[in-house]
Amino acid sequence: MDKFEKMIKGIQEDLEMPEEIWDACLDNIEQLPPRNSRKKNKKVLKYFVISTAAALAMGTACYAMVKSGFLERLQKESGISEENAEKYAQPEIDVKIEEAAGQEKTFENLWKVSEAWCDGSMIYFEAEIPQEILENDRLEIWNRDHVMVNGNACLLNVWGKCDEVTGKMTTKWMCSIDVNGIDDREKMDVEILVRLMKDENEVPAWDGRGGMTGVMEEGEDMASYINRVMENIKEVQTQTLKFSVIGGEYVRREAEPQVIKLTEGEVEVESGVIVPSGIKLAFTYHAEEDAQLPGNIPVCWYIEDEAGNREERMQMQSHSDVFGDDQGRNSMRVELETWMENLQIETNTITVIPCGFDTDEDGKRIPGTQYELENGRFTVEF
Amino acid sequence: MKKKNVEKTLLLRAQQGDKESFAGLIGQYRNDLYKIGKAILGNDEDIADAMQETILKCWQKLDTLKKAEYFKTWLTRILINSCNEILRQNKRMLPQEDFPAEGIRDYAYDSVEWQMFLRVLDEKYRIIVLLYYEQGYKTREIADILQITESLVKSRLVAARKIVEKNL
What we know:
The complex is a heterodimer. Chain A contains eight helices and 22 strands. Chain A has helices at residues 3-12, 19-31, 38-49, 52-60, 70-78, 82-87, 131-135, 222-231; strands spanning 89-90, 96-99, 116-118, 122-128, 139-143, 146-149, 152-159, 172-178, 187-199, 233-246, 253-255, 258-261, 266-275, 278-287, 299-305, 310-311, 314-319, 323-324, 330-338, 349-356, 371-372, 378-381. In chain A, the strands form three sheets. In chain A, strands 1, 2, 3, 4, 5, 6, 7, 8, 9 and 10 form a ten-stranded antiparallel beta sheet that branches. In chain A, strands 11, 12, 13, 14, 17, 18 and 19 form a seven-stranded antiparallel beta sheet that branches. In chain A, strands 15, 16, 20, 21 and 22 form a five-stranded antiparallel beta sheet that branches. In chain A, strand 3 (116-118) and strand 4 (122-128) form a beta hairpin. The N and C termini of chain A lie far apart (58 Å). The model of chain A is unreliable at 36-68 (pLDDT under 50). Chain B is mainly α. Chain B has nine helices and no strands. Chain B is globular. Chains A and B meet through helix 1, helix 2 and helix 3 of A and helix 2, helix 3, helix 4, helix 6 and helix 7 of B.
């Protein structure tokens, strides 16, 4: 055994976390704030690592504020074509509001929702916040990141909370709900819980831009600070918004699971969905043990429709590690999501094109060096 | 129940705000996390700070994790970033000329092999050697965790072996 192997064997032997450290971890976990306040806490952390100037610059990274209406904003920020934006718009939705018992009704609408858009996979809408709340540094509106749709928990994403130029909070927030996970999409009953929180700390905790201004006391750690501040942030009004949208199952097209032969190996397509809000694909490459799989090297992905229109930006891309399948082959599972902005929704096929590229010393992609991987391209039929 | 199913259940419960499940999730990897902390920071005080930061960040970002099978990789990445931040803070706090070449470490309670590991190899090699040989990550996974190229991971593994052979 050489010196290196001896050392490795030594570090492979049990080395347990000392009880004092684990006990401290458990204490930290005990002191964590409730899950529904984590977004606020994330901003606290940011506040302490950036300067005031950087905080202002941060505002510029916020999603663009759109000057006109909801549909125009939807097109601009969600890659939905003008035709589809109008086609699946639901301009007048009836929103019922339930107030929590025992609370004073300070505001008529914490979130005012008046129109929505739905293609059977995603629901988009704009929530209007009372200006008075944004101007009051003692008040803030919180929402959970899950809403109920037909009784199922679905992911809610909220963006566009601040103006890209001024960094100030805006009154119109863009919201999307991913309803791909529910079975019955013909009619969707949506329930959203929104809470108005009042900051009763001696020094206001909020900075009016969605961040926090509080100061940690000497010797105070982050978890204790958050805990202290949170104790003085009270829920003063809670509303449950209830509205229904038409799902439109008919606009959703799904690919049958299929196996496609490649020059070396094959690709197993698990699922493929085309809806006006985008394309989702999940597939697994299988190749012989010595063959290189896309993803073994850094790759970018292109998606092409049958007319040759190409989308080069992926909304989401992820791949698994290479693993051995039951036939002893190398396998890799990939998931891709992209917008429909440049693609035709009527297309009968979608072609997936993985491309390699050159990287610099830091591993970053060198623009213009893409090359198509010979054994990765395949076409899915819908 | 299989380990992965247990992990999935714990993750779902933790995402719903259950702290006991969250402690369970972290707890099953506590020794692996400790070794990573040891490899980067060396001393228990800093490791405890890194763990505290990791727990907080992990709790805040739990909803961004969609698949339980990536939990360990995700957690490892957060811990390494927290450790690196502490390293940077330590360097800022101590004037460069006063900073010991091998950092502030207490080797007294470490095994002979861990002492060799910490003394001979620079931190950038240690973390890769530990992830590859001790925790069983593949070079591609290590590249993802450390946000460097896979070829750099491989070359550092080769270099680490040469350094150990030459200096021990």
